[in-house]
Structures are given as C-alpha cells and as structure tokens.
Please model this.
Amino acid sequence: MHAMKSDPTDLTLFLAQSVVDQPSLVRVSKRGPTVMVRVAPGEEGRLIGRQGRVIQAIRTLVRAASDPRERVNVDLDAPRKG
Model:
C-alpha cells in the first residue's frame, strides 16, 4: 500500500495559516529543497512559537508527509532589516 505524499508547500501553507491571526497574508514559496514561509509583520513570533516549538513541529509534519528521498526544510522568510 502506497501512502499518498502531499505537496510540501500546500501543507506548509495550511499549517502556517492555522497558527497566525492573519492567515490571508501567509505566503509560501519553494527555493530548492526549502519551503519559505512569510507571514504578516509582527506575526513571526506566532509561527516560531515558544523556544521554536511551533516551527519545529511544522518542519516535522512537512518532512513526514513529503517524499523521503526529498529532504525538505521549512524556514521563515523574514523581510531584511536595514
């Protein structure tokens, strides 16, 4: 039996939208093996969570749901300061 593997960007978008206050402003893009997540200004902390627990949980779920041959990473795409 084959388990259906989901698209890492779709899953990341769903999970990120679930934890922020402004889900319509979540943007997800893929750069090589990395899925980049951008959220509304000031919402980065909600995505990261206490001691990074939320973003780590998202990484774990996305990796588990994606193809094991593809090493997927999830990272916060924060706007550059300065």
Observations:
- The CA atoms of residues 35 and 70 lie 12 Å apart.
- The first helix runs from residue 8 to 19.
- The chain is about 35% helix and 15% strand.
